[in-house]
Amino acid sequence: MAKIKHNNFLDTVHEVFTDAKQEGVLHLYAEGETFNGRTIGVKNRSLFHFGTTGYLGLEQDVRLKEAAIDAIRKYGTQFPLSKSYISNPLYSRLEEKVTEMYGHPIIITKNSTLGHIGVIPSAVKDQDAIILDHQVHWSVQSAAKILKNRSVPIDMVRHNDLNMLEDKIKRYSDQRKKIWYMADGIYSMYGDFAPISDLMALSQKYPQLNFYFDDVHGMSWIGKNGTGYVLSQLGELSENILLFGTLSKTFGASGAVLVCSNKKMYHEIKTFGGPLTFSAQLEPASIAAATASADIHLSPEIYTLQQELREHVEYFNELLQQTDLPLIDENISPVFYIGTGMPRTGYNFVNRLMKEGFYVNLGIFPAVPVKNTGVRITISRHNQKEEIKGLVEAMEYLFPRALEDTHTNSERVFQAFKMEPKQKKNFSKLKFNEDLQVQLEDTIEKIDKKLWNSLLGKYGVFDWEGLKFLEESFSGNSHMEHNWEFRYLIIYDQEQKPILATFMTVGLWKDDMLAAVGASQTIEEERKNNPYYLTSNVLSLGSLFTEGEHLFVDFTHPHKQEGLNLLMQNLEKLEHSLNAKMIVLRDFRENQTLHDYFQGQGFVRVQMPDSCSIELKPKDNLEAYISRLSTRNRKHLRKEILKIEELLDIRIVQDANLVQLEQIAELYSNVHQNNLGLNTFSFPSKLFGKMWVHPNWEFITVNPKSEPKKMIGVMLCYKNIYNTYVPAFVGMDYNYLEQFHIYRQLLFQTIKRAIELKCRHIALGLTAEFEKRKLGATVYNKYAYIQTADNYKLELMGILESS
Known about the structure:
Structural class: alpha+beta
Shape: globular
Mean pLDDT: 91
CATH class of the largest domain: Alpha Beta
CATH topology of the largest domain: Aspartate Aminotransferase, domain 2
CATH architecture of the largest domain: 3-Layer(aba) Sandwich
Low-confidence stretches: 1-7
Helix content: 25-40%
Oligomer: single chain
Number of helices: 28
Number of domains: 4
Distance between the termini: 23 Å
């Protein structure tokens, strides 16, 4: 496995969103000439609206509407001046009222995203550190990353993990003046809360601890004057807390608000806060609507509105408790999340609900892990009890049908969210053709050699003999990362004809294997003291030693879909029984059928480095092969390879002595340690000795004729049963790299040796496609599909990569 290409994350998000858009559940347009908040027009239908973030319904309040209309008549559609120079005449009244609501100085911003970008770099000093909750809103994470340019350390903890947070605080307490923990008050997907009281207790223990809370989803529907969840728990805003609220969403208008009780910090932020200084100010209509809403928040009416919403939320909760629906977090917020597990199930469920007359939101990657897709339902004062009841009845009826349609069941959903099933009933059982047979073994010796080689033994180091060699090499070693679990899966039809076959390994991977080099450099410093820092057990098709097409599927077989479903079922069972934290399906060429299937099963696609191979003709000799190269590439070959070949002693070593083995191991280690773009654990020391005695392995060695005992390069090559030559790994002395063009020389010698052996195929593997193409290789795009239990480590890698 090699590192993901630079823009892979954005490509992955684009693919997931495109898939959801094609399924008709994302990037929709509301229809209709009017909007009342209770219903919404979608696809020529009027649906009950359970997707709003205007929980109190104030966006439809006539007082806010009239104020906005009046402001436009008096002041126009906008006030086109920077607020640093002069503010719209309506601003001062709004600021006075919002200040009165909170009882502390406030700063009004265009929106919360620009507010975070303006406030965080001003509030956090170069001597400070930032710790992010991994589910804190993207806008906070994005603003925090700006401080990497000032060498402010940014770290991350798992969601609401106070033990992990305390460990991070201890780490920075002797190094940094302030330690900022950044979190949401109410998290927008699951509707769960930040543990405010526990966090305050932690701040008593560590006076350096400061807090930055984004409470936009906790605004208005709770708290004194509707000032939100965080302040309702705090009672009073201390000077070590910065609090963000909103004037949009539940507030009913537009804009955001920072609350800061530290007067010195307040003046610093207000005087010059990036976008706070240079961005356009709120439009007159927005200011006027927000002022009208502030009047409501400052009146007893706000508590009446809160109570009405609370009754709706409690009613919805009561109804849900009478069902087996997988409610992910039970709380008092107006945000609910019903898990569906796989994206395909989520698409199906949302579309069924829309056909039944209910609009809900889809929760999807990257807001949640792909296998934690679900339906996000929000309750507002607009919703009436009869349609709330209708929604629950519709979900209870449609959920099992969505599961059945997408070949899954409720047990898998609960398992994906690490929840215990309610066990009143199982919505649906997985249905498989009883004529299909599954063979799952833990050693290749239990698999028929001829059958295996006919299915998967053609191109890599994973023919039957190669896998027997790997099993022996990656077992019984002293270090845990050198011991792998092997599993072999073959699915047959009733006539014992194979439909699908693969092999899998479970082993310890470095989490940053897929990360940028900069992230790996940072992490490797930590591993000097903690060698297993940021590592995980990974269940993978194939292994870290092999490259190639690890999955055989007979796409002409009428039961291929059922075969793939059985593969998924067995992967999930192995993931849990072998305690894996990630599943990786790797080394696929472009295949739309498999892509659609894997994505629908909760996998995200990432692009791997390109793969290279050479097909040789039956009667090829070296001269004929070279003649097929382009004029430019033949010139490259003569100048940088053939001319230097005369200075080298090239040998094919099949019975290396102990001194040579030590040199080979050292050369391989040089390359391994120098390649953080493919950051894996080293291989066990006994591996090279086992290659030495194995008839299918040989070494191509390079020594300068001027230093005959000095080995400067080696290619470790495997001779496959189907006449495939596999240069599996390379070793080099970097002191001689440029002088002798060692890597180019080894590539050429590999081709030369394959021709001598009358091989039909050379599997040149991943990376270095530029060098391989110049020697006649064909280059293929390769992809992997990844499924993780949560997004924590993916997001942590993003934080580290931004340094």
